[in-house]
């Protein structure tokens, strides 16, 4: 069984990151008899300047992409259709907000140390896009962390400790300095970069080729 390590740089309020992850999971399932994949998640905040309590998602998107709110609704409809094909039920509406995700990323990094990143990431995606939960709210985050098996008291310390916020900011700077500007970004075996929500077919092809190349390199 060939092994591959994938570092995923993403934000949990990014629908393309959710789609990219779902496609990657399908590709991994397709290759499960050939390749053993280890996933690690790293932070990328779409907008670290969002105020506490969030802001209107439609207004944020319209400002970010310099377009109309109606054009943003049409984009959301397109994303919803793509998600449906993957079993993701995006539930966009005009009242939906986007939130600062720094604290969420702090918990995701803590979850890595506790071998609990996957369930943490999946719950954050699900609870934001399905239930529109405010991911900048301490109680919401602590409830999610507890549900996936993390210690609530320790997680509260992680949320409130400035050094954890600083660690996330430092990791983000490192990825930016490495040239990561589009998410999701998948770095395979610390060498091969795949940017954006690639199709399942492309992922299968690339993972298979990289695994084969890595195997030949070790053989020499």
From TrEMBL:
Residues 6-204 form the DSBA-like thioredoxin domain. It comes from the Bacteria. Pfam families: DSBA. Gene3D superfamilies: Glutaredoxin. InterPro entries: DSBA-like_thioredoxin_dom, Thioredoxin-like_sf. PANTHER family: GLUTATHIONE S-TRANSFERASE KAPPA, THIOREDOXIN SUPERFAMILY PROTEIN. This is DsbA family oxidoreductase. It comes from Vibrio tritonius.
């Amino acid at each position: 069984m060939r092994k591959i390590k994938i570092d995923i740089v993403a934000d949990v309020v990014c629908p393309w990151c959710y789609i990219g992850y779902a496609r990657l999971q399908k590709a991994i399932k397709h290759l499960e008899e050939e390749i053993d994949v280890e996933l690690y998640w790293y932070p990328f905040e779409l907008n670290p300047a969002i105020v506490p309590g969030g802001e209107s998602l439609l207004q944020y998107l319209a400002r970010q992409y310099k377009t109309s709110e109606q054009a943003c609704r049409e984009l959301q409809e397109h994303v919803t259709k793509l998600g449906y094909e993957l079993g993701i039920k995006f539930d966009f509406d005009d009242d939906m907000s986007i939130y600062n995700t720094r604290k969420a990323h702090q918990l995701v990094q803590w979850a890595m140390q506790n071998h609990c990143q996957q369930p943490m990431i999946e719950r954050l995606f699900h609870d934001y896009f399905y239930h529109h939960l405010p991911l900048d709210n301490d109680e919401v985050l602590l409830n999610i962390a507890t549900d996936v098996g993390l210690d609530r008291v320790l997680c509260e310390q992680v949320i409130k400790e400035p050094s954890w916020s600083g660690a996330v900011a430092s990791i983000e700077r490192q990825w930016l300095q490495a040239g990561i500007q589009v998410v999701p970004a998948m770095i395979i075996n610390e060498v091969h970069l795949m940017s954006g929500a690639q199709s399942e077919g492309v992922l299968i092809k690339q993972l298979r080729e990289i695994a084969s190349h890595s195997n030949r390199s070790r053989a020499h």
